[in-house]
Amino acid sequence: MFTKIYAHTGGREAVSSKEAPEKLKACFAEVLPDYDRDRVHVSDIKKCFAWYNILVKAGFTEFKLPAETEITPEPPSGAFCFVVSRLNSFVFIRNPRVCIIFLFNG
Question: pTM for this structure?
Fold first, then answer.
């Protein structure tokens, strides 16, 4: 999802998560036109845009899951963040100030 938002915004921040619900839905539909409108709530859309904007502001621009061989217990020199572990459908990413847990299908 973040990859699609990144491509849609040209690497810039997305719409603010504090916008009106209708604007958030419209922006989300531009990025992902076939999303399930019955199962994806405005609160989910807000969280998605909020997290995306946080990551882009912090300089995180590549939203691909690493291969199993790329997982490392210690960050590479100068790394902003790195994968700590990959367990079933969870990926744990951390940097010195934050830990991010992503749930994915795959």
Answer: 0.61
Angle, CA of 88, 94 and 95, to the nearest 5°:
165
Q: Where are the alpha helices (DSSP H) in the chain?
A: 2-9, 21-31, 42-57
Contact 95, 80 (CB under 8 A): yes
Mean pLDDT, to the nearest integer, of 72-89?
49
Cα 67–chain centre separation: 17
CA 92 vs CA 57, 82, 88, 104: distances in Å = 20, 9, 11, 11
Q: Is the dihedral of CA 49, 55, 57, 62 positive or negative?
A: negative
Reading the block at residue 96, the tokens are: 């010195």
Rounded to an integer, what distance in angstroms lies between the CA atom of residue 57 and that of residue 67? 25
